[in-house]
Amino acid sequence: MSTDRRKFLKHLGTSVLLTSASLNSFAAREENEIRLLRAQKRITPNDKIRIATVGMGIMGFNDTNAALTSPGVELVGVADLYKGRLARAKEVYGASLFTTDDYRDLILRKDIDAIIVATSDNWHSQISIDAMRAGKAVYSEKPMVHQISQGLAEIQAQKETKMVFQVGSQRVSSIAYRKAKEMYEAGAIGKINSIEASFNRQDALGAWQYTIPLDQSVQTVNWARFQSNAKEKVDYDPKRFFRWRNYREYGTGVAGDLFVHLLSGIHLITGSKGPEKIYSIGDLSYWKDGRNVPDVMSAVVHYGDTKEHPAFQVTLRVNFVSGDGGSSTTKIVGSEGVIDLGGEGEGFTIRKNKLPEAPGIGGWDSLFTYTEAQQKALLDDYNKRWKEDKRNRQKFPDVVYKAPDDYNASNDHFANFFDSMRNGTKVVEDAVFGFRAAAPALACNDSYFENKVVRWDAHNMKIIV
């Protein structure tokens, strides 16, 4: 029996037998109950955390709602460059809510403890640094930077200010991903060698053709501020503002938006600091609506042999016009099994098979091309050398783990953020972890647009020229 197999069985104990080869959701329910008890804990006035959100688009509202599920959290204000979203925020959170089109009005307020940065990608780094230097904790949407060159400065700002900083890739807090990490470390799949990870979509909204309001105009949108940090200024374009993900000037395309989720989960489970080589290809296949980023993109990312893990390769794929109707998965492949994580961290399945000790003979083999005498001699020798139980691939019952139906990883991600603010505990996705996931994702863009292999120094977090 391999060492990995012994570790795995020791880790599982009798749970496989007790649950008919399934972890089911017992452990998940237990962890979820802990989270619920934490949420029900009484909060004193001194424990109250006052937040503000910059950028009230889809993620701004979703992040704010997730943050408010944590006890003792109060929304003080929001900022957005479209007047209609400020009006909507008052409808949702109350007429007394402070609203502004300038994020600096929020970070300078003394009654705000933490800032959620949910703007277009090109503003993530600047707002985060300004907020930390103003004494605010920061929850930054992914990717934490728009350009790789911004990463070390943002890490340095966090170190200098010592403010709590967390990046918003929620699967890093998922109880399913944490359990998958335990199973991986226990040797559940043997020695890792490859990972397949993908996001497929087949609808206009999934491809970022978001609804544009009827009252959009230069009077309702602060277009000058939105593009003030862009290298090239263009005339007002509502598609560039309300569908900014489709434009390199403001977003990071499918790589920065979705590859970064996949890499965050992979780095959590494997303990990796990052890859050493990145190459990507892509096409604008279907959504030819003015966007300047691909809607189908694939990347091959190579992770070298390190103290954290053996060498393995990752294939990443996003397809915004996939005939399968849409799906997401991460399959971590090892020598003795596969961890198959579907969706956004709701659960996983471990399928285990072990290579037979005997090499095999006959079937799709060259045996039949030899003389009958040679075939008989070879078969007789094989049967003497290998007993029946050594000739077949070993297959083990699937291990299935499911989070509770009402579980939400985003809520946990914010709970971890606020725990760090209150108790000084380590955040689950700090600036270093966030950058180590973002940089290889953004390097996929560099590889695609410049048609080259990008070499990355994961330890020192810099491109190798």
Automatic annotation (TrEMBL):
Top-level taxonomic group: Bacteria
Key words of the record: Oxidoreductase, Signal
Domain Gfo/Idh/MocA-like oxidoreductase N-terminal: 49-168
Residues in GFO/IDH/MocA-like oxidoreductase domain copies: 240-339
Secretion signal span: 1-27
Molecular-function annotations in GO: nucleotide binding; oxidoreductase activity
Entry keyword DNA damage: no
Coiled-coil blocks: none
Gene3D superfamilies listed in its UniProt record: Dihydrodipicolinate Reductase, domain 2 (3.30.360.10), NAD(P)-binding Rossmann-like Domain (3.40.50.720)
Protein name as it appears in the record: Oxidoreductase
